[in-house]
């Protein structure tokens, strides 16, 4: 797992594994930030984009939520969970 962050856009991307071509993107509603999950052709989640991270990142409903939360905390991000996840 790898995290990239652009502070000027307050946007991050978490690569969930090796880089693969994106076949579809699903937007996940959240109270804390805009979140999109990218999927490969076979339906495997391959990345997560989060916009507006300064108020915290909602990991509820994300693929590999516990692992993503741990990665975010390692990089100093605030992790919130809308439905008790993480």
Please describe what this structure looks like.
This protein is mainly beta and 86 residues long. It has one domain. It is built from 1 helix and 7 strands; from the N terminus they run E-E-E-E-E-E-H-E. It has one helix at 65-74; strands spanning 2-6, 11-15, 24-28, 34-39, 45-51, 57-58, 79-80. A 5-stranded antiparallel β-sheet has the order 1-2-5-4-3, covered by helices on one side. The radius of gyration is 12 Å and the shape is globular. The mean pLDDT is 91.
In short:
This protein has one helix at about 65-75, and strands spanning about 1-5, 10-15, 25-30, 35-40, 45-50, 55-60, 80. It is mainly beta and about 90 residues long. The strands form two sheets. It has a five-stranded antiparallel sheet, with helices on one face. It has a two-stranded parallel sheet with strand order 6-7.
State the low-pLDDT regions, or none.
none
Q: Tally the helices: what do you get?
A: 1
Strand fraction band? 35-45%
Overall body shape: globular
The arrangement of helices and strands along the chain is EEEEEEHE
Please state the CA-atom Rg, rounded to the nearest Å: 12 Å
For the termini, the CA-CA separation is 17 Å
Would you count the extended β strands for me?
A: 7
Instruction: Describe the sheet with the most strands.
Output: 5 strands, antiparallel
Overall pLDDT confidence: 91
Strand order of the largest sheet: 1-2-5-4-3
Approximately how much helix is present in the residues? 10-25%
Structural class: mainly beta
């Amino acid at each position: 797992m790898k995290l990239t962050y652009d502070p000027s856009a307050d946007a991050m991307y978490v690569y969930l594994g090796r880089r693969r071509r994106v076949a579809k993107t699903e937007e996940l509603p959240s109270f804390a930030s805009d979140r999109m999950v990218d999927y490969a052709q076979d339906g495997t989640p391959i990345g997560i984009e989060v916009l507006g991270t300064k108020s915290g990142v909602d990991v509820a409903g994300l693929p590999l939520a516990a692992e993503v939360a741990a990665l975010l905390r390692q990089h100093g991000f605030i992790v919130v969970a809308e439905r008790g996840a993480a």
